[in-house]
TrEMBL record:
Family according to the record: Belongs to the glycosyl hydrolase 29 family.
InterPro entries assigned to the protein according to its UniProt record, in alphabetical order: FA58C, FUC_metazoa-typ, Galactose-bd-like_sf, GH, Glyco_hydro_29, Glyco_hydro_29_N
Domain Glycoside hydrolase family 29 N-terminal as annotated: residue spans: 59-327
Keyword Membrane on entry: no
Alphabetized Gene3D superfamilies for the sequence: Galactose-binding domain-like (2.60.120.260), Glycosidases (3.20.20.80)
PANTHER family tied to this protein: ALPHA-L-FUCOSIDASE, ALPHA-L-FUCOSIDASE-RELATED
Keyword check for Secreted: no
Protein known as: alpha-L-fucosidase
Stretch forming the signal peptide: 1-17
Length: 459
């Protein structure tokens, strides 16, 4: 590693959390733990896989569900090799078909020919996740186009009972995922969901699990399904102003600087155009290069990345999806090499409990490299246990020929990656132009993101 000379425009201070007052709101312990996961997988596999649609109608025959070679160990093994930290399974989608033998619906694997009605996909995935050291998450759609009680008060109890089954029979759950879709049931009625009841079930049986929806309560939708967060991405949000399916959600998708609750964003995106497996999309799998760009625009913008893998009718992750995931893992291994590693001080020690602090008179970090390095990405982190502070900042780059470029940016949060056209970087300055309270930075790194062709990814 080439030697780097670092100059700071103010005294570097190795300071600790107890010396600073938090800027509220702040994350809970389970929200902090969730942020550290950064990247995990979504498994869309259900009745829709076999009917070749995205949204089923609830009229499908259970006999259609019959995977020929289902292997949850294959899912977990590939996810582990891909660097994922967990898998979230669609235990029940909008059509109401359950992947486990629930006592509260007649539309489930218990009525299917798969394993003569004795199968349980949730149980098999739970065991596979345990085997490969992955966390297990559950998606349970509140919308149910099959259940005869949907649209009545009784259905809220049915849903809560299904939650109880999933939360008590399959071991630890790290995330419970509510879909915001809410349409009519078989009786033509829409359901008024009892969200306090649903949330209480998770808090009662899996208190360490985070709950996802448009409004949280613990983590929230980023506002699109294309794989990116935004330049301004606050974890604080006015949580009481929104709810799942909220029609004006776009007004809240960036979070709010004056948010009342800590509800960090999650970026959900599929590796294919669809969420479920469709044979005609086998040649439309996102490339490793595309996935790395998504990573920089999600994990690199104060969000976690939930990457969907549509399992095929065999019950296996398709070879094309697996190959792309492995390529993505290889690119991350080559690209996430910190070119500032080995330097001393709170910005470089890898300790989230030590920070560099700005003051009103001195709010700039200056970094000069002894030998110019090929760089196209800078990464900063705030110690979010003390709240999210940076409102805006700018980075001035200078290459070895003295050419300069100024990049203006919004928030930082858990992790912020600034990408730019690759150059042999000689020096850079980071200036903080707006904040909620004193600026604290716990980590600063520099990378060269490269493509599958060993070329700079950010041209």
């Amino acid at each position: 590693m080439k030697k780097v000379l670092l100059f700071l425009s103010l005294l570097s201070m190795s300071v600790y959390a107890q010396q600073f007052k938090p800027v509220y709101p702040i994350p809970s312990a389970k929200q902090l733990a969730w942020s550290e996961l950064e990247y995990y997988g979504f498994i869309h596999f259900n009745m829709n896989t076999f009917t070749n649609v995205e949204w089923g109608e609830g009229k499908e025959s259970p006999s259609s569900f019959n995977p020929t070679a289902l292997d949850c160990n294959q899912w977990a093994r590939i996810a582990k090799m891909a660097g994922m930290k967990g898998l979230i399974l669609t235990a029940k989608h909008h059509d109401g078909f359950a992947l486990y033998p629930s006592k509260y619906t007649s539309h489930s694997v218990a009525k299917s020919p798969w394993k003569n009605g004795k199968g349980d996909v949730v149980k098999e995935l739970s065991a596979a996740c345990k085997k490969y050291g992955l966390k297990l998450g559950i998606y349970l759609s509140p919308w149910d186009r099959f259940h005869p009680a949907y649209g009545t008060d009784e259905y809220n109890q049915v849903y809560a009972k299904m939650q109880e089954e999933l939360l008590t029979q399959y071991g630890p759950i790290f995330e419970f995922w509510y879909d915001g879709a809410n349409g009519e049931g078989p009786n033509g009625k829409k359901q008024v969901y009892d969200w306090p009841l649903f949330h209480s079930m998770v808090n009662k049986y899996q208190p360490n699990a985070v709950q996802f929806s448009d409004a949280g309560p613990d983590i929230r939708w980023v506002g699109n399904e294309r794989g990116f967060a935004y330049d301004t991405m606050w974890s604080p949000i006015l949580r009481d102003k929104i709810y799942p399916g909220c029609p004006d959600f776009d007004n809240y998708r960036n979070g709010q600087e004056n948010g009342t609750h800590w509800v960090s964003p999650e970026v959900d995106v599929s590796i294919r155009p669809g969420w479920y497996y469709h044979p005609d999309q086998d040649d439309k799998v996102k490339s490793p290069d595309s996935l790395l760009k998504i990573y920089a625009a999600s994990v690199g913008r104060n969000a976690n990345l939930l990457l969907n893998i549509p399992v095929d009718t065999r019950g296996l992750i398709h070879e094309n999806d697996s190959a792309s995931l492995m390529g993505f893992a290889q690119l991350r291994a080559k690209s996430l090499v910190n070119l500032l590693k080995g330097k001393t001080g709170p910005l470089f020690d890898g300790n989230k409990s030590t920070y560099w602090m700005a003051t009103e008179k001195n709010n700039q970090i200056n970094v000069t490299l002894k030998t110019a390095e090929k760089i196209n990405t800078l990464m900063l982190q705030e110690p979010i246990a003390l709240g999210q502070r940076v409102r805006s900042f700018e980075v001035e780059l200078e290459d070895e020929a003295g050419n300069k470029e100024l990049i203006k940016a919004g928030t930082i949060g858990h992790k912020r990656m600034i990408t730019f056209k690759e150059r042999k970087l000689k020096s850079f300055q980071i200036r903080f132009t707006g904040s909620r309270g004193p600026v604290l930075i716990s980590n600063l790194e520099a990378y060269r993101f490269i493509s599958t062709r060993n070329e700079p990814l950010f041209q």
